[in-house]
Amino acid sequence: MKLILSFSGLLIDRLGDALLQQLFDVYPEGNQGGRNISFRMRLPADDPRIEKVLDLLESEGFVPWEDTSRRCKDNEFSLDRYREYDEHDLAEAPYLSLGAYVGSWTDGRTDDGVLKLNRDFLDTDIYESNAEIMCWTSNYIISDRVKGLLEESNFVGWRISPTQLWDGPQPDDPEYETQEWDKVGGRWWELWSDNILPPLNRDRNSVTDYRENPIPPESDKSVGYIREIHEPGAPNVRDVEYHFKRSEFERMQPFDVAALHERRGKWPSDRHLIVSHRFRNFLTEHDVKGATYAPIRIDPD
Q1: Domain boundaries, the chain
Q2: I want to staple 290 with a disulfide (CB 3.0 to 4.6 A). Which of 52, 133, 148, 205 is the partner?
């Protein structure tokens, strides 16, 4: 596993020409053919160029944005830490946390819980990535082709629900809806699971509501706001590893898809998904693009 540092939020009009050129001298990839509006850099944490860039920014009064409870100041930038896993890291894990490298924007849900997809964002995401699985917070969507593949499989634990293509009020006409889906290459579906895992190990993962109040493990109730799951042992790392107590996790029957006990919204499907290696291999074998994976951790009691 590698730790990756990502610099963002360094708007070019704030940096000034002299500092900007110095940054490009250290990291030429930050200059995307003059099309970018900010300097960005993403490198392994032990790359010597990171220290050089930090020194340059500090010399001009720029500092990392640490208090994210308030708006970023003009002299602050985002310095995020991510984990990058190799095949060995994933192979050693009992199960995998399912993610996606494209997070297609959703417009909430209808009154009866149908996920609303923003047509403009979905169309752009498909065109730019060719992804067939996407995730926004803890809501997963899959293409019509992936739905068909899963229906032919014998996987345990997965569920699908229809979604609605949304760019404003629509006429109540099935033919109109079909025509709209055709514009984005076919229908998309919500992927979820009613196979619920035991609560996260609160010794390794802290779970809070939107006011940073701790949520006890016995609660899965939601007040309709996104919950935060933290990993106190790895501060400032954006991608959280999920931890479970061994005695509780081993009570689960073998599965291919399951969902966290902790909900990020008020609907049962507002949960992050955990999948088997068999599920991952199946998507890979069928050339399903878009999915990312991270190991989960089983802790001794």
Answers
A1: 2-84, 88-301
A2: 133
